[in-house]
Amino acid sequence: MISEKANFRMRAALHAIRPGEPELPRELAAVVREAPDxxxxxxxxxxxxxxxxxxxxxxxSASDLPATAMFSISEPHDAAVPVTTTxxxxxxxxxxxxxxxxxxxxLSNEPAEFLYPCDDNHLCVMADTATALEDLGLPxxxxxxxxxxxxxxxxxxxxxxxxxxxxxxxxxxxxxLMTTAH
Length: 182
What we know:
The chain is of the alpha+beta class. The chain has helices at residues 8-17, 26-29, 45-62, 120-135, 140-152, 154-161, 171-180, and strands at residues 3-6, 68-73, 85-89, 104-108.
């Protein structure tokens, strides 16, 4: 499984644009194991972001070793310079990552209990949610899987997690939502 951690600037970009989950084009899927250094092009920023993230996840999933990818967005200074995305593999997550001025998203295939917390507050709410699910009778591993599955949905991740709604509710609230939502 791939964990993701977006800094504040990236959360704002992803929340505003809400890229979809496109399929990886065949030509990229065929060379994913090599993690080629090649430009990805999209018709709009949302498409470019979505494709770049899917590409980074595919490369990390194909890796036999623990690996990290740092995904970033360039911000143009004028209308003549297009927005670009960059995926750099093997880059460790730097301290202060959350406060970096650049929009950054760290992806990793290293084991992680919760896959989507962007900061300590998110991690705390997710842990509280898992505990609330345990209190409702779920075993710990099922509670964690339910929390990860809930936040894995792009519509929830982009609008609720990246939009800041996660911290406005308690773990008990999210646990109730997870057990009653269909």
